[in-house]
Amino acid sequence: MLSKWLKAGYMENHVLHPTEEGTPQGGIISPVLANMTLDGLERRLRERFPKTTIKGIAAKVNFVRYADDFIVTAASKELLEQEVKPLVEAFMKERGLELSSEKTCITHIEDGFDFLGQNVRKYKTGKRHTLLIKPAQKSVHAHLEKIRDIIKKHHTLSAGRLILMLNPIIRGWAQYHQHVVSADVFHDVDDAIYRTLRWWMKRRHPKKSNAWMTKKYFKTVEGNNGVFYGEVEGQEYLLAETARVPIQRHAKVKSEANPYDPVWESYYEQRLDVHMADTLKGKHWLRHLWKEQNGLCPMCQQKITKITGWHSHHVAWRSKGGPDTAENRVLLHPNCHQQLHSQGLHVEKPRPAKGVGRA
Fold first, then answer.
1. Between vectors from CA 330 to CA 325 and to CA 332, what angle results, nearest 5°?
2. Do residues 318 and 324 touch, judged by C-beta distance below 8 A?
3. pLDDT at residue 354 in the model
4. For residue 18, what are the CA distances in angstroms to 11, 14, 26, 274, 311?
5. Buried b vs exposed e over 306-335: b needs ≥16 C-beta within 10 Å?
6. pLDDT confidence of 171, banded at 50, 70, 90?
7. How far apart are CA 197 and CA 203, in angstroms?
8. What is the SS3 assignment for 269?
9. Residue 349: left if φ>0, alpha if ψ -120 to 50, beta else—which one?
10. Of 27, 161, 223, 327, which is least surrounded by CB within 10 A?
């Protein structure tokens, strides 16, 4: 399968390009190969420093990996240099790999380190140590450099067109970092973008006053004075503000949870409920499903309200291949949902209420 994947080629602008060697830049096969190649490194560290012995616990050796990027912690610098690093190098040498000298470093947690675009560091406040994860300075600078480059290269575009180009980049970067300590960084990023936009306006209207430009390009939205806006074909667009993205702590997935095991079906449905309630798209789906059912639970035929609460249920379970679409989902009371899973019951999706279309 891997051989066929490597030789499958790639599509660009509806043209098939062959791949005789290597992998396409940014192709999904690269992290897959990294995961397969590095699988077993954590087990090797666990065998060397078992958590079942006093010595293994005292070593504080832990392993975190995402594709080919990984972190190894230990109780001391000497332990990392003399035991952990040689073990990792030997493991990789067996697979024809070696550690990158440019990206590999040994540092103290109080000095911090960057991992996947975020800075991990323990700050000492009095006698306490607090671990904080923030957007890395490199990530912030690269993001702002990309924004400035777009604004400078497209200084002749209308405000609406410029906003359409910037919004996906701003939203994507902010949503990636919204789960960590980012509020102050978000405000600084917004300020930097605002100053770049001021430069863009001054270039377009060198003889106009600041008050004139503010009146033309900024408007008040939901009590926030000064949101950059423009129009495209009569449709108004607002610039996405990083600081308006809510900080939401990420809820870790239980390590033993398996999305293909029916035992964990209700667990993943509950995680989906949280996602639906916290995102704009999820709220749209929730409102559509509620209207489609005429506000009734298909199990007990009683009203679903904020007081009763609700759970999202997949008619054909996802663990058994059911799709994650509106056609395969219904809203149930929490008690009805628990009863359905515990007793192995089945519920049919009700016919849409009159006037309600498919999402």
1. 150
2. yes
3. 59
4. 9, 13, 16, 43, 47
5. eeeebbbbbeebbbeeeeeeeeebbbbbee
6. very high
7. 10
8. helix
9. beta
10. 223
